[in-house]
Amino acid sequence: MLAYLLRRLLYAIPILIGVNLLTFTLFFMVNTPDDMARMQLGVKHVTAEAIEKWKTERGYDLPLFWNADAAGTEKLTRTIFTQKSARMFIGDFGRAENGRDIAREISARMGPSLAIAAPTFALTLFVAVCLALLLAFFRATALDFWGVAICVLLMSISSLFYIIGGQYLFAKVWRLVPISGFGEGLDNWRFLVLPVLIGVVSGVGASTRWYRTFFLEEVNKDYVRTARAKGLPETLVFFRHILRNALIPILTGVVALIPLLFMGSLLTESFFGIPGLGSYTIDAINAQDFPVVRSMVFIGSALYILGLILTDISYTLVDPRIQFGGQK
User: Fold this and answer.
1) Residue 238: which of 222, 215, 214, 210 has the closest Cα?
2) How many domains does the chain have?
3) Does residue 256 share a domain with residue 140?
4) Cβ atoms of 264 and 199 closer than 8 Å
5) Which of 170, 236, 166, 233 has the alpha carbon at shortest distance from 199?
């Protein structure tokens, strides 16, 4: 097991390097250091001297990948890529263009993101699994038909519609919750109820249909027919056998998403004014703040790889027949 985990972690290194390099290249294909300086200083009435001063102060006066004027190893180390992007592998995310420490900002904003993402994730999973079991139990009935139809309807509507409609109905018309913002302490639940509710409603349709498919695949398998032949009631067959065996494909999508909870939701945090990582990323993109953008892309890639590793580990917990390395 330890050897397998170490091997997967070693595989992750070239993937992260590739993601880092690709992000860096794409960003500077669209924005030059001069464009970044104009964005930060103001587009109008910016002198060439001010642009050069801004670039020198922030290290953007160096070549991107190869410094031909430097000597020895500094040809690689005295470049924008090495000094701005490669340092993330040792945990140094640097500073944003406004001078704030990125690592400190990420730590401060992680809490609000988790406050929304964690309950949304848990409630969506619970509701979707329960509804999927119910539809599979009453398969080929009117309840199943209309349940699937409602799920298709829910997943066909844009999450933006749920956000705007929820803010208008619950916050503006009924005045049950604040329309946006984020508080401190126990009183913060008023700001979280609506975003969590909208997140569950917008995600439960697709998840329910997905899980229902897994349950239906197990319904007519040999071990299920054997359990029924032994006289077990249908409810016990579903909860003891079908649910347990359907957990493996469910875990494929669920466990991989757990680390990404730290990244927050871009739309939800932006529309509800929540100071999380999602809104932090959107603001950085709008401001062309490259240090923040590449830091968030790097962290997202690392968390996704971690999620895949956790998925493999969870397989062995659900089904002991599965062993690391592909052997059974």
Assistant:
1) 215
2) 2
3) yes
4) no
5) 166
Coil, strand or helix at 127: helix
Q: Residue 97 falls within a domain, yes or no? A: no
Tokens of 117: 């993402």
Let me know if residue 100 belongs to a domain: no
Q: Six-digit token pair at 100?
A: 């704030």
Same domain, 50 and 131: no
pLDDT of residue 309: 83
Give the residue from 55, 90, 125 where a domain finishes. Answer: 90
CA–CA distances in Å: residue 227 to residues 55, 191, 198, 213, 216: 71, 48, 40, 20, 16
How is residue 285 written in tokens? 């993109």
Instruction: Indicate whether 70 and 117 sit together in one domain.
Output: no
Q: What is the pLDDT of residue 139?
A: 93
- pLDDT of 117: 94
Residue 95, domain member (yes or no):
no
DSSP secondary structure code for residue 101 in this structure: B
| Contact criterion met (CB below 8 Å) for 97 and 291 | yes
End-to-end CA distance of the chain: 13
How high is the pLDDT of residue 137?
A: 94
Give φ, ψ of 274 to 5 degrees: -95, 125
Q: 3-state DSSP call for residue 100?
A: coil
| DSSP string covering 214-231 | HHHHHHTSHHHHHHHHTT
Span 70-85, pLDDT tens digits: 888 889 888 988 888 8
171, 313: one domain: yes
- Taking 50 as the pLDDT cut, the residues of the chain under it are 327-328
* Phi-psi category of residue 162: left, alpha or beta, with phi > 0 → left and psi -120 to 50 → alpha: alpha
178 closest CA partner among 165, 194, 161, 198: 194
In the beta sheet, which residues pair with residue 95?
101
Q: What confidence score (pLDDT) does residue 328 get?
A: 47
Q: pLDDT tens across 90-100, in order?
A: 888 988 888 88
Tokens of 129: 């699994």
Q: What is the pLDDT of residue 29?
A: 85
* Cα–Cα dist 175/177, whole Å: 6
